[in-house]
Amino acid sequence: MTLPNKLTVILFSTIIISACNDKKAESVIEKNSNDTIISTQIAKTDESLEGVYKTNECDISLEITKTKDGYAYFLKTNLRKLKGKAVFKNESGEKYLVLEGIKWDEYEGDISNEEENDSITDSKTETLEPEIPVGIDAGYVKDTLIIQNYGNSMNSYTKISECGLKYIQLVKRK
Question: How many structural domains comprise the chain?
Answer without folding.
Answer: 1
